[in-house]
């Protein structure tokens, strides 16, 4: 077992305090011990993931892409064109972040290569925030790699204590956790300490608590792609709150536990079945039929669940 083994944010913060490390520093040492590799090797591997994120953002922003269903594609490019024209209502960093977040999510929907962060459905949030801060703040690549390690620490805790599946806990477990990861990365990259990094993650996740998973036609496209943009903006807000010194009174571990409780309380139609929420809107059902997807309503979903799992109340 690695000397830097941890299961909770409380343990990470204790290690960071004892050894004078940032959150990224703890995760890097964990990875070194786990893989038996040097710091340079584990950082190089993370740099390769960053390169994939860059390529996906570039493709989504500058190429004409469309998902096989035709439901999404080109939204990130339109946002980028609006930003370049000086028309965005958002501040510079946020305008970049939401364009790139949407662009990367659209690359995923069009069968392109992305980094699941923590899932493919929420893959745009972390690169959107990372690359926007790099461009607007002039950050070096080493700082972005630190940010990725900080984000990984948040994702590891969430995955260990909960689930990253929208089918299990709703979209809060995907977009919510991705926003928490991105908020932590933003704080790490801009000089925050481990406590501020954890605070940022907590603020982001509690702000998206209860977000349901209701994809139209069961495809990770509508409203998923736009939620990536919203998650990136949420992450930057959370990072600013933490860096300003505003305390997140509820510890991150407890927020994750609350996410589990809330997710389990969500009915099946709000957990990726396409039977509730946005997916159940008349227009959503019409769109699904147009692309040849049969959808479930609440009654047929319950019937299927009863056949598959007779003991479910």
Automatic annotation (TrEMBL):
Transmembrane segments: none annotated. It catalyses: L-serine = pyruvate + NH4(+). GO terms for molecular function: 4 iron, 4 sulfur cluster binding; L-serine ammonia-lyase activity; metal ion binding. Its cofactor is [4Fe-4S] cluster. Pathway: Carbohydrate biosynthesis; gluconeogenesis. Its EC number is 4.3.1.17. Keywords: 4Fe-4S, Gluconeogenesis, Iron, Iron-sulfur, Lyase, Metal-binding. It is an enzyme of class 4 (lyase). Residues 19-279 form the Serine dehydratase-like alpha subunit domain. Belongs to the iron-sulfur dependent L-serine dehydratase family. This is L-serine dehydratase.
């Amino acid at each position: 077992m690695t000397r830097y083994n941890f299961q909770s944010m409380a343990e990470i913060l204790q290690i960071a305090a004892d050894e004078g490390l940032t959150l990224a520093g703890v995760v890097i040492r964990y990875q070194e011990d786990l893989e038996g590799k040097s710091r340079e090797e584990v950082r190089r591997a993370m740099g390769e993931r960053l390169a994939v994120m860059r390529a996906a953002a570039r493709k989504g922003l500058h190429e004409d892409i469309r998902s096989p269903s035709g439901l999404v594609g080109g939204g990130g490019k339109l946002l980028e064109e609006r930003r370049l024209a000086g028309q965005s209502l958002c501040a510079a960093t946020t305008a970049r972040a939401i364009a790139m977040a949407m662009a990367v999510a659209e690359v995923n929907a069009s069968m392109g290569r992305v980094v699941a962060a923590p899932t493919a459905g929420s893959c745009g949030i972390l690169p959107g925030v990372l690359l926007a801060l790099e461009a607007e703040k002039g950050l070096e690549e080493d700082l972005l790699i630190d940010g990725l390690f900080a984000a990984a620490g948040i994702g590891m805790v969430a995955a260990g204590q909960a689930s990253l599946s929208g089918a299990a806990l709703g979209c809060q477990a995907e977009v919510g956790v991705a926003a928490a990861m991105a908020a932590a990365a933003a704080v790490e990259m801009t000089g925050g300490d481990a406590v501020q990094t954890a605070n940022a993650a907590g603020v982001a996740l509690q702000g998206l608590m209860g977000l349901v998973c209701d994809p139209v036609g069961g495809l990770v496209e509508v409203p998923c792609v736009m939620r990536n943009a919203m998650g990136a903006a949420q992450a930057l807000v959370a990072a600013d709150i933490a860096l300003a010194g505003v305390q997140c009174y509820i510890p991150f571990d407890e927020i994750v536990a609350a996410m589990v409780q809330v997710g389990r309380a969500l009915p099946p139609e709000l957990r990726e079945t396409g039977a509730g929420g946005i997916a159940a809107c008349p227009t959503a059902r019409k769109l699904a039929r147009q692309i040849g997807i049969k959808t479930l309503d609440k009654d047929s979903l319950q019937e299927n669940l009863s056949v598959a799992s007779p003991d479910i109340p």
